[in-house]
Amino acid sequence: MKVAVIGTGYVGLVTAAILADFGNQVIGVDIDEKKIKTLQKGQTPFYEPGLSDLLIRNQKAGRLVFTTDYSQAIPSAEVIFICVGTPSNEKGEADLSYVFAAAESLAPFLTDKAVVVIKSTVPPGTHLEVKKIIDKLTKVKYYLASVPEFLREGSALEDTLHPDRVVIGTDERYAQDVLLDLHRPINGKRILTDVVSAQLIKYAANSFLASKISYANEIARLCDAYGADVMQVMEGVGEDKRIGKAFLHPGIGYGGSCFPKDVKAILAFAKKKKVELAVIAGAHKTNTTQVDYFIDKIKKHLGHLQNKKVGVLGLAFKGNTDDIRQSRALVLIRKLLKEEAEVYAYDPLAIANVRKFFPELNINYASSWQEVAKQTEVLVIATEWNEFKELDLEELKRISKVRYIFDGRNILNPTKVKLAGFHYIGLGR
Ligand code: UDX
Q1: Same domain membership, residue 160 and residue 32
Q2: Hey, which residues are catalytic here?
Q3: pTM for this prediction
Q4: Could you list the mean pLDDT of each consecutive 10-residue stretch along the chain, which spans 429 residues?
Q5: Do the beta carbons of residue 153 and residue 48 sit within 8 Å?
Q6: 199 within domain boundaries
Q7: For the chain, what is the domain count?
Q8: 394 CA to middle of ligand 1, Å?
């Protein structure tokens, strides 16, 4: 099949690369010329395991090309995916300007029977606005659909190839058949539904997962208050198949490009219809106070933070990515700096992004956790990187004066840390 993918962020690039790998002819489109040039040279603009190889392989095979030119990409495309960003605006709503701009740019080049799929996360009803825009610019018969994306950064290829489900939302039989055919090589249950339900599935799923995390974080606070171990409590809770174990890992909260934005957006579009979402509003509130809660714990042990040398391990919003969008690690660092701590930090991949996007942050960067430890009295784990899970405690003792380890991701074994002679402070344990 001939496919165009508009937007070369995580979702767009992964979609383009995988569809090309299935043998489709794919054109990736982006208005960002620099990004397109980078991609044309066979380079990936961000880190995602396995993506670079997949892109290069399919570019070499001639199945995947990139352009900034809609007139090159759209006329031949049987299916067009809109995968542009929908960031939060100042009211917390999804900013749809990129989606509308993409619709306007593609419309004049649409050919008969093209299927336009909105993969960007958009509030229910957005497709009607998109339809109005396209209808003004073309007379051809085209179809609209919504195929939301559920991939996680760091495991994007695996998630796309082996999803739990593929949601195909469209009110037209023809578009449904085309999309079923295109997704044939992908595993997972098919959920065939209407466009609005598909759009809501994405928000409902993300806000449920975010709520699970906030729920675990609230129970962690309760465990702190009563002296229980939240990891055991969550194990006992998660073994119930009706609840499930995933996304019950307590920490300093959820970040990233999806959960914070989508939770705010669902609250905003519910409010427009005067629907109260008390559970989701609560999850959001807990997430926005979780770093403060952790900082209070740190202060309880250290007294104050002024002029204290604090080492922060992790800057990315989670492990295995260089993405720092809405990273709780950065929220934590800002608060530490406000308390006048001296911050030393290391991350395996994300330092360059923090330097680039937040040059004002007064952080002393290090090239390893050892280098951080040598200069600090206190270590704070802010991101769940595997290399921090395996922290060599004997080496830490040998090379540093660190005595306190604040585990903001509950990834270390408290008993081992204490036996090695450190103070261990996690969340809810
Ligand atoms: C998420 C959804 O999982 C994915 O389905 C959707 O398409 C996009 O948003 P992603 O943002 O890549 O994916 O990250 P995810 O692995 O879900 O983690 C989100 C945040 O939650 C991270 O900050 C992570 O540290 C935190 N988290 C996750 C927890 O604090 N505890 C958990 O148990 C799980």
Answers
A1: yes
A2: 258
A3: 0.96
A4: 97 97 98 96 93 97 98 98 96 97 98 98 98 98 98 94 97 97 96 98 98 98 98 98 98 97 98 98 98 97 96 97 96 98 98 98 98 97 97 97 98 97 97
A5: yes
A6: no
A7: 2
A8: 32
